[in-house]
Amino acid sequence: MKVLKVDHIGIAVKSIDAAKKLYHDILGLDDAGSETVEEQKVTTAFFPVGDTEVELLESTAPDGPVAKYIEKRGEGIQHIAFRVENIEAALAELKEKGIQLIDEKPRRGAGGAKIAFLHPKSTYGVLVELCEREAH
Ligand SMILES: C[C@@H](C(=O)O)C(=O)SCCNC(=O)CCNC(=O)[C@H](O)C(C)(C)COP(=O)(O)OP(=O)(O)OC[C@H]1O[C@@H](n2cnc3c(N)ncnc32)[C@H](O)[C@@H]1OP(=O)(O)O
Ligand SMILES: [Co+2]
Q1: What confidence score (pLDDT) does residue 136 get?
Q2: Which residues surround ligand 2, an ion (CB under 5 A)?
Q3: 127, 130, 132: residue to mutate for ligand 1 pocket, most atoms within 8 A of CB
Q4: From which residue to which does any coiled coil extend (predicted)?
Q5: End-to-end CA distance of the chain
Q6: Which residues, other chains included, contact 125 with Cβ-Cβ below 8 Å and sequence gap of 6+?
Q7: Would the CB of 129 count as within 6 Å of ligand 1?
Q8: With b meaning 16 or more CB within 10 Å and e meaning fewer, what string describes 79-108?
Q9: CATH code of 68's domain
Q10: How far apart, in Å, are the Cα atoms of 92 and each of 19, 69, 95, 97, 109?
Q11: How many domains does the structure of the chain reveal?
């Protein structure tokens, strides 16, 4: 498998509107737009930074992964996303090598990407997202 870049860093926040005051107004990052991904129970907001992006994540439901993360650990970095060339091939290889997959098959992420998560127990305590998308 081949990791092409850090696609984005996912930061769990209670309020995207509030967090934008830092990331957009103060740090001056461009706001590349928001989207709700129902399957993940999140609203996302992307801020490009160099060759990668910050993804702010606000939960849409109290039982969603981002709400649970904030409840247990407070706001903070919830995941890191690696862009891969071929997500199906990457998942097959990781599974074969004994890495615990949360998603055996890709799901639909923000911006139409194909995404899948690896369990933090298998990845030194960091929730890892793999994603495949058209280059940008
Ligand atoms: C829209 C999309 C996109 O980019 O396009 C997104 O990003 S969606 C982004 C949001 N979606 C997701 O996160 C989907 C994948 N996430 C999940 O399936 C879940 O959040 C899990 C990662 C499996 C955690 O589930 P749950 O909260 O039930 O945790 P659990 O209590 O079973 O936790 C098992 C162990 O993992 C740890 N743990 C839980 N969440 C963690 C995280 N984000 N980073 C690092 N460690 C984490 C717990 O502390 C615990 O460790 P100890 O046992 O040592 O206490
Ligand atoms: Co993400």
Answers
A1: 60
A2: 10, 55, 81, 129
A3: 127
A4: 77-104
A5: 20
A6: none
A7: yes
A8: bbbbbbeebeebbeebeeeeeebebeebee
A9: 3.10.180.10
A10: 37, 27, 5, 9, 19
A11: 1
Residue numbers of the domain that contains 124: 3-132
* Residue-level pLDDT at 135: 72
Query: How large is the C-alpha radius of gyration of the chain?
Result: 15
3-state helix, strand, coil in the chain (%, to 5): 30, 40, 35
Task: List the chain pLDDT tens, one digit each, 136 residues.
Answer: 999 999 999 999 999 999 999 999 999 999 999 999 999 999 999 999 999 999 999 999 999 999 999 999 999 999 999 999 999 999 999 999 999 999 999 999 999 999 999 999 999 999 999 999 987 6
Residue 101 pairs in a beta bridge with 118
Amino acid at site 13? V
Residue type, 73: R
Token duo for residue 36: 């709700």
From the CB of residue 63, how many other CB atoms can be counted at a distance below 10 Å? 8
What is the CA angle 23-29-35, rounded to 5? Answer: 75
Report CA(98)–ligand 2 centroid distance (Å). 23
